[in-house]
Design goal:
657 residues; mainly beta; four-stranded antiparallel beta sheet; 2 helices; disordered N terminus
């Protein structure tokens, strides 16, 4: 599940943004220096969200100003998700502007929640071209586009038509190839410049199947997964990962995550349905010829009694595929028989780590549980060790089965608490805290992996995370990982089929004996029943696996009048950017601010007010030696948030003398 199904901000009151908080920005001297593009979603094909630029530094970060803003007009407001009468099964949520732009050959490219693609001058924000794929979005439950991908044909000279291709994913399950220079379709790719990912998928509903993340590219092969709707049905489309020739669009291979020895196709020529999907961002390593995919959990998320064994085999896993054949090279499960929606949400981050004088090609994977896997990306072997530990075995509903143990990395230590009970209750007042304690005691509670029950089970970590799709950022020179983490408890309640359909706050899980309700665990005053901070930013030293620091991320400023700034931790979606100069840029909160931290100690150096919340990941580039370094972030809200959706793509740079 890429996002929460129930807003955890039910207690917040929307008020106008507070402006004029900061001192006037002082100009600084801009010295000539190195340039750097941002050629793929995570900054590199293996992610990391790291910029080697250092023009913006600890010494001058106070001189950042808005350099330009581009607005597409592509956004919509949604219903009040806190309305108890709202039917979440049929509601059309607000748009969510989650894009991270790329910068290649002096042009910035990004996609909007409606899948329009824009090419901009990266120094001025001036529009160069726009492409509209004509996607019908009015009935789409999820309207987001995390990014586009770039490929340059080494066989063609600069100026040749479609030498530089921009690949744009769409909500109606297409990938379109565009000429990076003109924005026109590359007609020789697929069918008139596009491939249709609904081929061999079978029957589809309007909301069932979309491409929301940018495809990965390795050599001349394009690889993509897809977002498949959560918690609605057992008979959902296949989560197949497919690879195509970047020049022709011809299918090269397909990997449908069934267990070894099982047929990936049905007799009707379509892919076996119900397999785990890959909705997040894929990484690649050309030197190893590996494609690394983070998988979701098998449908329908919160009940697995009717899953056949072949549907769980690759669920909630990190899987390495051979880029030539699509065959599995290795895979590591992060959860056995996942019935908590703890799918692997984030792009696998590839980084070389030096341990005891040996350089190990590592893969770092954060999870919704707040647990971090650090493995050798050549073979999937854990660098710090994995321990199978006993987990709760009682209280599950009839028909469900449980795994006796679950894997726990020995290092790094968890970034999220792994136990929750009455003694952990928190409230705004003594009365409020006691009400929370009573509520917790009446629900099934305890350590992580407590099974979901008919009376309600507290999920802490929640299906939102812990970590989610925007983390982490990794500084390869310092060997430091920085990740944002949400810490808000939720309650999952299974209901017998005959009791389903009475509430719009439940998800049907058709094909099983149970529907499910997901709710915030909150006090009578509307605050989470867990102690703040409700979101953090943490740094881990990768060579040792030790946590360096963990600090609150955000406040409720701008959401609760006057006292909001005193509440620590503002849960949101997105993630951090790290730079060579030792700065961390991050929004990823429900409050409307971009914050800048010192990577060494977690000190918050500055916060910049934004037009609304930013549910995205910043990026950085510098395209001319005597020019400025830019920090760019999509600012457009999230459907679970308290602020309006919008369409601001904002660039910041140092104010020059």
């Amino acid at each position: 599940m890429p996002y929460s199904k129930i807003s955890y901000n039910a207690m917040l009151v929307v008020i106008a943004l507070i402006s004029g908080c900061e001192k006037p920005v002082e100009p600084v001297n801009i010295e000539p220096g190195a340039t750097a593009d941002w050629p793929s979603w995570g900054g590199a094909p293996g992610g990391g969200r790291y910029s080697p630029l250092e023009q913006i530094s600890l010494d001058n970060v106070a001189s950042l100003e808005v350099a330009w803003i581009h607005r597409s007009g592509d956004f919509r407001q949604g219903p009040d998700v806190n309305d108890p009468d709202l039917d979440l099964r049929t509601a059309i949520p607000a748009s969510s502007f989650q894009a991270t732009p790329i910068v290649v050959e002096n042009t910035l490219y990004y996609c909007t929640p409606y899948n329009r693609v824009f090419a901009l001058d990266p120094e001025t924000g001036e529009e160069r071209w726009m492409f509209d794929p004509q996607v019908e979005t009015s009935q789409k439950q999820v309207t987001n586009c995390r990014g586009v991908s770039s490929w340059i044909d080494p066989k063609l000279k600069r100026g040749a038509v479609c030498r530089h291709k921009i690949f744009a994913p769409t909500l109606d399950a297409r990938i379109i190839a565009l000429d990076g220079e003109s924005g026109k379709r590359c007609e020789k790719f697929g069918d008139n410049g596009q491939i249709d990912l609904t081929a061999q998928i079978g029957e589809l509903g309007e909301r069932d199947y979309s491409i929301t993340s940018p495809p990965a590219i390795i050599g001349d092969t394009l690889v993509t997964g897809a977002f498949v709707i959560d918690a609605f049905d057992t008979d959902v489309p296949a989560g197949v990962v497919r690879a195509f020739n970047v020049r022709s669009g011809e299918l090269r291979w397909a990997w449908n995550p069934v267990a070894p020895g099982r047929e990936p196709m049905n007799s009707d020529g379509n892919f076996v349905r119900g397999t785990t999907n890959v909705w997040s961002i894929i990484s690649v390593d050309e030197s190893l010829n590996h494609v690394y995919v983070p998988t979701g959990n098998s449908s329908p998320d919160y009940y697995g009694g009717q899953r056949e064994g072949h549907l769980d085999h690759y669920s909630s896993s990190i899987v390495a595929l051979d880029a030539t054949s699509g065959e599995v090279a290795w895979h590591v499960r992060t959860v056995h028989h996942d019935i908590w929606d703890f799918d692997v949400p984030a792009q696998p981050s590839l980084v070389n780590v030096e341990i005891d004088g040996e350089t190990i090609p590592a893969l770092v994977q954060v999870t919704k549980m707040g647990l971090t896997w650090v493995v050798d990306r050549r073979n999937g072997e854990s660098i710090f060790g994995i321990e199978e530990r006993p987990v709760p075995q009682t209280g599950q509903v009839d028909g469900e089965y449980l795994n006796k143990t679950q894997p726990f990395p020995l290092k790094p230590e968890p970034l999220h608490p792994l136990h929750f009970g009455p003694d952990d209750a928190w409230g705004l007042t003594f009365w409020d805290r006691n009400a929370c304690r009573d509520k917790i005691a009446a629900l099934k509670h305890g350590p992580i992996y407590t099974p979901i029950s008919l009376t309600g089970t507290i999920l802490f970590p929640a299906p939102t995370g812990g970590n989610n799709w925007g983390s982490p950022a990794i500084d390869p020179e310092r060997g430091i990982m920085v990740a944002s983490d949400m810490q808000v408890p939720m309650v999952a309640t299974l209901r017998a089929r005959e009791d389903c359909g009475t509430s719009g706050r439940e998800f049907p899980q058709q094909g099983t004996p149970y529907c499910v309700g997901i709710d915030l665990l909150s006090s009578p005053l509307g605050a989470p029943c867990s102690e703040p901070p409700w979101a953090t930013l943490a740094a881990v030293d990768l060579p040792t696996g030790e946590k360096l620091w963990q600090v609150p991320l955000g406040t409720l400023e701008g959401m609760i009048p006057v006292i909001g700034k005193y509440f620590k931790g503002s849960p949101g979606f997105g993630g951090p950017l790290s730079t060579k100069s030792g700065l961390i840029f991050v929004a990823a909160t429900t409050d409307p601010f971009l914050r800048i931290f010192n990577i060494k100690n977690g000190e918050e150096l500055r916060k910049i007010e934004l037009p609304t919340q930013a549910a995205s990941v910043p990026m950085s580039y510098k395209v001319s030696e005597d020019g400025r370094q830019y920090i760019v972030i999509a600012v457009g809200g999230h459907w679970t948030g308290t602020f309006d959706s919008s369409d601001h793509l904002m660039a910041f740079a140092l104010k020059a003398r």
